[in-house]
Amino acid sequence: MVMRRAGKTALAGLSRQPPSRSGLRNLAIALRTPTTRPLSTTPPRWQNANHADAASGTGRPASAPRSAKPAAASGDDVQADVLSRSRRSMLYVPGSSEKMIKKSQSSCADTIIFDLEDSVAAHKKGSARETVFLALEAAARPGPELAVRINPPSSERALAEDDLDMILPSQQLQAIVIPKVEHEDDVRVIIDKARALRRVNDPAPPLALVLSVESAASLLRMPVIIEAVREQLGQHPRTGEATGETQVAQIVALLFASEDYCASTGILRTRDRKSLLFPRAHMATIAKAYGLAAIDMVCIDYKDEPYLVDEATEAKQLGYDGKQAIHPVQVDPIQHTFNPTQESVVRAARILHLYEHASQTENRGAYGLKESGGGMTMIDRPMLLQASAVVDKARKAGMHIPSAAELDQRE
Predict the structure, then answer these.
(1) Among positive and negative, which fits the CA dihedral 332, 338, 343, 346?
(2) φ, ψ (nearest 5 deg) of residue 56
(3) CATH placement of domain 75-338
(4) Mean pLDDT across the stretch 216-242?
(5) pLDDT band at residue 142, thresholds of 50, 70 and 90?
(6) Which residue ranges does the record assign to the HpcH/HpaI aldolase/citrate lyase domain (predicted)?
(7) What is the distance between the alpha carbons of residues 133 and 285, in angstroms, rounded to a whole number?
(8) Residue 146 backbone phi and psi in degrees, to 5
């Protein structure tokens, strides 16, 4: 995300004299000029290049790309892009900190979350909303997904509605993180407000909704919540498939908030993470059952990179698609961990090409794949689906996917 220089001046002035909401909109529109500082595509230096990927036993290949900006979707792809876009890293930025908002300009995170909840003191909630609105309006596009974590409708309804009244009119807002979701009404308030405040223009993408699981009640009721919200949106309760009408919003992910979950359940978070293994795995299973992304908990020890990578690797093995970050230095290790290794991409591409060849020329639904170690692996439809998922993640990460000709040269 890139903030215009004029935007920086405007942000600095908010603490002295907060403008009205109409004034904010006019100011934000004026800020959107072509005088933009180019976005730096160079990510932070990788500090742990020799760390082995637990799933493959290999270190980071020299050709593997560093963190990359997600590609912008257009045309008929926008509806699908909301659900399928990469969310390997979701970086929180305190909405009350102009300094940190400016620093987030150079982040390579897939999603930037401007936070209006836990990181904002009660007496700064109002000014933080205005700061976040300006940050949204002054952001250059394309860039990271822009999200806002609002105050919880379940316990702070008035604050949440004030948040929504301020941020929903911004057409640059792409996602809302909803904390402490325990009932479908906690999500319905966002949908009702979005229908009233947002311009719904087909094929404009719907607003992405990320539901935060922060209690045992939330975890156990989440299937009911998802199905009820989808029915309100006119979507199939299990698949989320739209009925054909323009969609104002769409649930895209579940997010595990470990600290709040521990506080509500009495679980003691241990360094080996065993105490949280069940709820993490359970939430990931629910997400996959409903075709949603699963976003893992925050690693609060942001200075211990090997521990962060170990925690992210474990999440990947549990079926998670990404992880929350609370510091910019966490983004690159997280995104590398959730990228497939180059070796796994090559293997997946081989499976897809050989399967296509076998099905077309030999009319077979299964075949043997000769592995690099000399063994043979039986490849059938489940293996094909896994390979397709690996290639899809590699494509979103901007990694090179070898063609059939390139694979033939490797043989």
Answers:
(1) negative
(2) -115, -20
(3) 3.20.20.60
(4) 95
(5) confident
(6) 88-328
(7) 35
(8) -105, 120
- Polymer length of the chain: 411
CA distance 304 to 346: 31
pTM exceeding 0.90: no
Residue the block writes with tokens 């360094």 = 271
Average pLDDT for residues 207-236, to the nearest whole number?
A: 97
Do residues 229 and 188 lie in contact, with contact meaning Cβ atoms separated by under 8 Å?
A: yes
Q: How far is the C-alpha of 33 from the C-alpha of 145, rounded, in Å?
A: 20
Phi-psi region of 319 (alpha: psi -120 to 50; beta: other; left: phi over 0): left
Element (H, E) at 136: helix 125-137
Structure tokens at 324: 């929350």
CB 54 within 8 A of CB 317: yes
156 C-beta neighbours (distance < 10 Å), count: 18
Pairing of strands 376-379, 367-370: antiparallel
More confidently predicted of 153 and 82: 153
Structure tokens at 306: 């090997």
What angle do the packed helices 185-197 and 216-232 form, to 10 degrees?
A: 40
Q: Where in the chain is the domain with CATH 3.20.20.60?
A: 75-338
Question: Which residues form the catalytic set?
Answer: 380
Nearest CA-CA partner of 257 in 411, 143, 106, 92: 92
Q: What is the pLDDT of residue 52?
A: 38
